[in-house]
Structures are given as structure tokens and as C-alpha cells.
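Job type: complex structure
Entries:
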Amino acid sequence: DDVDDTKDEL
Amino acid sequence: MNVFRLAGDMTHLLSILLLLLKIYATKSCSGVSRKTQELYAIVFIFRYLDLFTDFISVYNTFMKVVFIASSLAIVWCMRFHPVVRRSYDRELDTFRYFFLVGASFALALIWHEKFSVQEVFWAFSIYLEAVAILPQLVLLQRSGNVDNLTGQYVFFLGAYRAFYILNWIYRYLTEPRFTRWIAGTSGVVQTALYADFFYYYFISWKNNSKLKLPA
């Protein structure tokens, strides 16, 4: 699930 | 983190520092849209709810706290600072921004990555950020003359968006399974809103003249 890694951007 | 992403974050930070510098050095917020600043405060608060739930890196946490604190400080100055608030262009800053908030929230309810409070608020913040510059652009257009620091503020804010697009292209090409539909689409819309401003900014830069936007 690649939802989480979106949030490494500001 | 790639070089485009870092350049994007740094131009974003620089834009905020320029705005704080303008307000602090000139004790004036003329030419600055309080509505845009309030929208950014809402954007950062709703996007960075994950400060309480996820830890990504010291850099990430630091930047989030800086963005929230600086946007609140700017709004506070424009509303309550005894000197600064007097220079606020109230009669020019009349964009109906509640419409933007409502439309962004409605879109977030329809298009999100997951139907949870945090994910809907995250999508809401992305959509709202895409259009948050509109009151500022309208104010600049109405006032005609743009002072240097305010012009540079908007320029670096636009540069931050452009670098983020390069960052996504880079990540798309180098990372398998990389997609950012919500952030990417909104980012392109957001950057496009600056196109007109960029055009006049470069003309004034090339002619070494004061930035003027046509009415």
C-alpha cells in the first residue's frame, strides 16, 4: 500500500 | 530526497522569510493578502495533523512546525499588530475565500486516497493550497504596483511549486510505482495560476523596471 509514503513531502 | 524537492522546500521557506522580512522591516503589510495568509494557515494546520501520529524525520517535523508557526505569525501581525495592521489593504482584499474553502472540502470528500478523517483533511489541504494564492494575485492586480519584496515573495512561492513538479517527474522516472495523482494534479493547477504573474515578473526583471500588473 503506497498511501503512506505520499506524506514524506511537505 | 532529490535536489528538486530540496530546492522546492528551500524556495518555499525563502518566500515565507521574505514576507516576514517585508513585514518586519517596513512595519507594513500593504500589498499582502491576509486572506491568502489565512488560507495557508488552514492548509498547514489541516495537512500536518500527522505531526501527532507519524514521525518521518527531524527535517520533516521541523519544516512542518516552521510552516505552521510562520503562517500563524503573519496572520497575527496582519490582524493584531498595532502598526502593521493599519497598512492592510482591506478594501482591495475582498476575494470571497470561503467559497474556496467550501469547494476544496467538497472535492476532498469526493476525491481522496482513503476515506478517513486524516486523509480527507490531507486532500482538502492540497486542493486549498492549489487555489490559496488567488486572493493574493487579485490584490496585486488591483493595486497595480507591486513592491519588490512582495513581488519576490510571490515569485519564490511560484518557484517552489515549479520545483515540486520537477521533483514528481524525477521521482516518477526513478522510483517504481511512484504516482501522486492528487498532489500532482493540484500542483499543476497551482503552478499554472502563477503563469501570468511569472510573465510580468520576467518582463519587469528583463527591463529592470518596477513590477506592474495590468488591471
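Summary: Chain B touches chain A through 21 residues (CB under 8 Å). Chain B has a mean pLDDT of 95.
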